[in-house]
Amino acid sequence: SLFSSLDAQGPPLGSCRPHNHVMFLKTHKTASSTVLNMLYRFGEERDLHFALPLGYQLGYPLPFNAHRVKGYRGPRAMEFHIMGNHMRFNKPEVEKVMPADTFYFSIIRDPVALAESSFAYYKEVAPAFRKAKGLGDFADDPKKYYDPRLRNNHYARNLLWFDFGLDHNANFSLALARRGEAMIRRAFKLILVSEYFDQSMVLLRHALCWPLDAVVSFSLNARGRSQAKAPPNLSLTEEQREKLREWNALDWHLYKAFNRTFWEEVDRFGRAQMEQEVALLRTRREVLARVCLRDGGKPVEAYRIRDKAIRPFQSGLVKILGYELQPGLDNATRQACLRMIRPEIQYKDLLDAKQSHPSLPMVPFAF
């Protein structure tokens, strides 16, 4: 079958053993839903145990607490393999849930692009964004709109810093920024960069010793095409972009520091080798898109997806797109394709049902 062919394995990885204990800090608006889908697929195919939230997030935006994990009964009462739902990172509590040999990784994004995405997605949720006409107005004078005491305003300032468990309202100083950076370096083995997603997947595959298909994905939780070019209330001047970097100075420091590290990793890996493997990854994605997806694999608006069980959840000003499966697939191929396009919320419900009642046949949950 297509999914058990040699192509599915990808270039050889030497004699490493696949990591089964993985913790992914799912940061906001960084392509992290696509990464979580890969973790869900890998674990589901191998019957691994997920540290799932009681709801859909692990207590976010409060700092993570081990008791937020469904079925957690104290350290080591049960082996959890994979953790990756939204949380505000809190390492001592994560260590109560995850085994000592867990591989920790996360993903970051340029703070200006992140602010654009956050503004579009959380406009109605974050008071600071709700008050501003457009992102440009907010960028011109963030302090006019921003009150640190109001709930959900963390989406409007140093969101990465916040997700990593640090104080996002602290005044910027280089010493503070370096301390936060050092804390993240100690806790995480690998920090991916959303702007270099495919290169990130190659590094991740080698770090985890996973087959190629485990890191091939279709972009999930993406915004509508007409909106991918910034709508008028999102367009920014260069001066406003600079102001957003200042406003998110702690995130900007992290982005520059981990971007440098990322390219050092790529150099160690070998640039020529990286180009080859990225090309393979992209070719494989195209092959799977042709097999799995209707309409040549273009994402479509949710209301046009006939199967309600795979319609993505909608939030904010932008339409979140999803996919339609190619009709007439054989059962095994259909199941493998379905895993690649199943939206995060439905996938979590499915895994939850599987873990709560391992003996029950799986019936997909329909919204």
From TrEMBL:
GO terms for molecular function: galactosylceramide sulfotransferase activity. Its main location: Golgi. It is found in: Golgi apparatus membrane. Keywords: Glycoprotein, Golgi apparatus, Membrane, Signal-anchor, Transferase, Transmembrane, Transmembrane helix. The keyword Zinc does not apply. The keyword Cytoplasm does not apply. GO terms for biological process: glycolipid biosynthetic process. It is a single-pass type II membrane protein. GO terms for cellular component: Golgi membrane. InterPro entries: Gal-3-0_sulfotransfrase, P-loop_NTPase. Belongs to the galactose-3-O-sulfotransferase family. This is Galactose-3-O-sulfotransferase 4. It comes from Myripristis murdjan (pinecone soldierfish).
